[in-house]
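**Protein of interest**
===
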Amino acid sequence: MSDDNARRDGAADGGSAGPHGIHGTARGSAPVPLSVLDLVTVGSGGTATQALTTSVALAKLAERRGFHRHWVAEHHSMPGVASSSPAVILAHLAAHTSRIRLGSGGVMLPNHAPLVIAEQFGTLEAMAPGRIDLGLGRAPGTDGATAAALRRTDRLREGADDFPEHLAELVRFLDDDFPDAHRYARIHAVPGPVQGPTGRPPVWLLGSSGFSARLAGTLGLPFAFAHHFSARNTVPALDLYRDSFRPSAVLDAPYALIGVSAFAADDERAARREVLTGALSMVRLRTGRPGLVPTPEEAEAYPFSEIERDFVEGWLGDVVHGTPDEVRTGLDGLRKRTGADELMITSNVHGYAAKLRSYELIADAYGLPDAG
């Protein structure tokens, strides 16, 4: 069976397609499954409540149009992002959907005790059986000072360096299988296996460099790469993941998705106008001035310096944007260049309505079925 045909096999819903819920199903003319990465962005003039309401609307749209999964990412101390608590948001999304897979893209493991994450995601799995993914990152998801406040320590490198050990501990809690002599042998993450036979969320490793790529390959886990902010490292990291891969009880072959910034509008100028808001947001973040995502008017009027202009043009060069046909062509080309098994689309723009319409237009461009 060819890879593309295999991707088209599986259940009609996101909850049970493929082994351990990892493999998705390509729909319409899409070459691979399409998914959503939701940063729950807060635009200038808007509120966190509006952003979270949009997140629910987006999850419903994604489920209706056949996107495979909807992930939210952990960020802290960023005014333009309302996703500091992925588990809380995922519980809310689970209450408003019934089929689509929901997960973290990701939870930053060094910020939390492994037992706490196991409990949170065991609870989510009990709420939405067979629909939860646990994506884990080793970065703090914020700046150093905020990371220190989260962790109550200034020894930040220790958390990242201990990532493999903490990952192994988290998996033991999820599976409830510490050896009898282990100090945690009598501790159980609940909800979990101690309460009876149950499924558990598949663990994904996330990364923007080679460390997690190699670790995911060595452990035989699925891997998600942050192409949307580390595009130059995408192909090397995926090559490293595939070269390092060892079959496991979870996967017998590598499975990699990439996060990609993409935005579609009715015409190219309208698309450019919206994606410029996300670019200016990144300029401000990279220069220590994080804020709400600016309006298109703010972005167009902003006096970019020459250095900032160069950054913006480079950033937008990695954002697939334009008409629906142009976005489809760009996504197809990216998938071909990287060999990704799944494309996870994120849209960091100001307009809530524009964001929802972009996903609808991308679904239309690929002829995804409308279950509405």
